[in-house]
Design a protein that fits this description.
Oligomer: heterodimer
CATH topology of the largest domain in chain B: Rossmann fold
CATH architecture of the largest domain in chain B: 3-Layer(aba) Sandwich
Largest sheet of chain B: 6 strands, mixed
Distance between the termini of chain B: 31 Å
Protein name (chain A): ABC-2 type transport system permease protein
Number of strands of chain A: 0
Organism (chain B): Paenibacillus methanolicus
Keywords (chain A): Membrane, Transmembrane, Transmembrane helix
Helix content of chain A: over 70%
Order of helices and strands of chain B: EEEHEEHHHEHEHEEHEHEEHEH
Number of domains of chain B: 2
Pfam families (chain B): ABC_tran (PF00005), DrrA1-3_C (PF13732)
Strand content of chain A: under 5%
Strand order of the largest sheet of chain B: 5-6-7-3-8-9
Shape of chain B: elongated
Number of helices of chain B: 10
Number of strands of chain B: 13
Largest interface: A-B, 20 and 21 residues
Helix content of chain B: 25-40%
Strand content of chain B: 25-35%
Order of helices and strands of chain A: HHHHHHHHHHH
Number of domains of chain A: 1
GO molecular function (chain A): ABC-type transporter activity
CATH class of the largest domain in chain B: Alpha Beta
Chain lengths: ~260, ~300
């Protein structure tokens, strides 16, 4: 356990000194803060951008607060995931290529401790970044569009965070299997996008798919509550997370 | 069998990848406070053997036993290992890396910090201890690598080609350091620089295509292979070349083996005294223009070449 903490602290220090702990949350803050502001000024932006025939009447209904937050989560689900995958893609493969992994694993350190310490650090980075961005979105949304039930907002955040944690764990596992970090980032992002698209295309057949989680988060934000069919994708997501982690420990290449 | 003075005992150690056998049935014992060089041409299985000893590779069969260890305990606790190309986190300072390595080996923060201070001073990195490793030279990194391998006071220090990537200055520093370390720790290192091995080690192991072909104390191996060698070099004139040709082709009574070398020839003879006399007389009679005449015993290089030749 002591060894595990030493490894985790090293990972945190690395996140700090490589400025990942700065720029990853910064991207989320930017995404989360700009979405409500952009949506608020959308009618004016369109009106001033020109190109409209004189006298044309534009009716843009003011979106409701929960819709703005749901839109923000969609931004996180694409650009946010890209940034997270980029931050986590070299976790194992980078150390394998540099040769630092072998230096650690020749000490009395188990592959389990080695992989899970990186996992813990990436999860904390993910949580901090998503929570920061979501906090900014929540602040601007309630200032510009009116308040959202904090219970619903919190539940939606938790659901969405689980989805991002699955993605970052998959990126970590792929970086343990694949030769290059870029491949790991690409495969995990592509998998996330495909899963979400497939789940959207076949909502009945794939109602249990982890890709349903972002949709569930939006649903919760709309005040429709947590549905009974929500448990299947949740359990599937958490299983996928732990299967990826176990596979990384068992079959990962470290030397 | 393990004896009192043994640190490591290897029996029938074998590593196979699919159909290819990289290390085959290797047996040897490392004794306490001895420095052993593992020699062999590239691809002979040196790194594979060393990685199995360090616990990085699982042997296909065979046994590795460490002194005083239960057979199921982690060998990494009693071994310090330096890979061929040590890599560090560039963002850490030398001191931070040492403490990190010590803590991974189970030392307390205080013990790790004390050991780090002491070892960094010993390898001459006390002044650079607080600088980022990213700014270290190759020689400094190698010395840091040796220091981090010693942080938990291992019974056995294993180094994979510790000097091959260094410039002459770095090589001299590391040699001096190893000479100092071998007084208190058993050392095993692989190398293909025979000169370094000869200057440093007590025992040698020579691998050829995964098999151990020569082993034992350097002096004993020398005795076993004691064969007088004469090296003659001449100027490149007609008469001298012709004379040398006759020695190379003719079957002079005492010559066991004659090889052409650059600018001359190398003779392995049965009786040094008789051969010396015959050669000197012949040189005087033929008026050969000798530039170099070297009469002596087989060097480690000769033994190595003989051992690895098919």
């Amino acid at each position: 356990m002591t060894v595990w903490w030493v490894l985790v602290r090293k990972e945190w220090r690395e996140l700090l000194r490589s400025y990942k702990l700065l720029w990853v949350p910064a991207v989320f803050l930017l995404l989360g803060g700009s979405q409500p502001v952009a949506m608020y000024f959308m009618p004016e932006i369109i009106a001033r951008s020109g190109g409209m025939p004189a006298g044309a009447l534009i009716e843009i209904p003011t979106p409701q607060a929960f819709e703005v937050l749901a839109q923000t989560l969609q931004q996180f689900g694409l650009l946010g995931l890209l940034v997270l995958a980029l931050a986590g893609m070299g976790a194992v493969s980078g150390e394998r290529i540099a040769g630092t992994a072998i230096m650690t694993l020749v000490k009395p350190v188990s592959p389990t401790a080695y992989v899970t310490s990186k996992w813990a650090a990436l999860l904390s980075l993910t949580s901090i970044a998503v929570a920061a961005g979501y906090g900014a979105a929540l602040y601007y949304t309630s200032a510009l569009f009116g308040s959202v039930s904090w219970k619903d907002a919190l539940l939606a955040l938790i659901i969405f965070m689980i989805w991002t944690c699955v993605l970052i764990t998959m990126t970590l596992a792929l970086s343990a299997f694949l030769g290059s970090g870029a491949a790991a980032a690409f495969v995990s992002l592509a998998a996330a996008v495909v899963v979400v698209l497939l789940t959207g295309a076949f909502p009945d057949e794939l109602h249990w798919s982890p890709g349903a989680l972002p949709g569930l988060a939006s649903r919760v934000l709309a005040g429709e509550g947590w549905p009974a069919y929500g448990w299947a994708p949740l359990i599937a997501a958490i299983s996928l997370l732990f299967v990826s982690l176990a596979a990384a420990v068992k079959f990962g290449r470290f030397t | 069998m393990m004896r009192g003075g043994d640190v490591l005992n290897v029996t029938a150690l074998t590593k196979r990848y699919d159909a290819k056998t990289v290390v085959e049935s290797v047996n040897f014992t490392l004794s306490k406070m001895r420095c052993t060089a593992l020699l062999g041409p590239n691809g002979a299985g040196k790194t594979t053997t060393i990685q199995m000893l360090a616990g990085l590779l699982r042997p296909s069969s065979g046994q590795i036993r460490l002194l005083g260890d239960a057979s199921d305990s982690d060998p990494r606790r009693s071994i310090g290992y330096l890979p061929q190309h040590p890599a560090f986190y560039a963002w850490m300072s030398g001191r931070e890396y040492m403490i990190y390595a010590g803590r991974l080996c189970g030392l307390t923060r205080k013990a790790a910090s004390g050991a780090a201070e002491e070892l960094l001073a010993r390898v001459g990195l006390a002044d650079a201890a607080r600088e980022r490793i990213g700014g270290y030279s190759g020689g400094m990194k190698q010395r840091l690598g040796i220091a981090q391998a010693l942080i938990h006071r291992p019974k056995l220090l294993i180094l994979d080609e510790p000097m091959s990537a260094l410039d002459p200055i770095g090589r001299r520093e590391v040699m001096a350091l190893l000479r100092d370390i071998k007084r208190e720790t058993t050392v095993l290192y692989s190398t293909h620089v025979l000169h370094d091995a000869e200057a440093l080690c007590d025992d040698i192991l020579i691998l050829r295509q995964g098999e151990l072909v020569e082993s034992g104390p350097l002096s004993e191996v020398r005795d076993r292979n004691r064969q007088p060698v004469i090296v003659v070099e001449t100027e490149n004139d007609e008469a001298s070349r012709g004379w040398m040709e006759r020695w190379l082709q003719g079957t002079k009574a005492d010559v066991l083996n004659a090889d052409r070398v650059e600018r001359g020839m190398r003779l392995v003879v049965r009786d040094l005294e008789a051969a010396r006399e015959a050669l000197l007389l012949d040189i005087a009679r033929a008026g050969v223009r000798i530039t170099r005449l070297d009469i002596g015993q087989m060097s480690l290089e000769d033994i190595f070449m003989k051992a690895v030749a098919e």
